[in-house]
Amino acid sequence: MTGLPVITIDEIRAVAGKTLVLDTVRAALIAHAESRTQVPPPTHLAFEKANGECHVKTGYVDGSPYYVIKVASTFYDNHRLGLPSNSGSMLASSASTGRPAALLAEDGWLTAWRTAATGALITHALTADNAWVGVLGTGLQARLQIEWLSTLRPIPSVAVWGRRSEAASQLAHQLRELGLDAHPARRREAAARDCVITATASGSPLGSAHDFAAANHITAVGADMPGKHEVPAGLFAAANVIATDDHVQALSHGDFGHAVRAGAVAHDADIPVGAILRDEPYDRSSLSIADLTGVGAVDAAVASAVLGQLLGS
Amino acid sequence: MTGLPVITIDEIRAVAGKTLVLDTVRAALIAHAESRTQVPPPTHLAFEKANGECHVKTGYVDGSPYYVIKVASTFYDNHRLGLPSNSGSMLASSASTGRPAALLAEDGWLTAWRTAATGALITHALTADNAWVGVLGTGLQARLQIEWLSTLRPIPSVAVWGRRSEAASQLAHQLRELGLDAHPARRREAAARDCVITATASGSPLGSAHDFAAANHITAVGADMPGKHEVPAGLFAAANVIATDDHVQALSHGDFGHAVRAGAVAHDADIPVGAILRDEPYDRSSLSIADLTGVGAVDAAVASAVLGQLLGS
Question: What ipTM was estimated for this complex?
Answer without folding.
Answer: 0.88
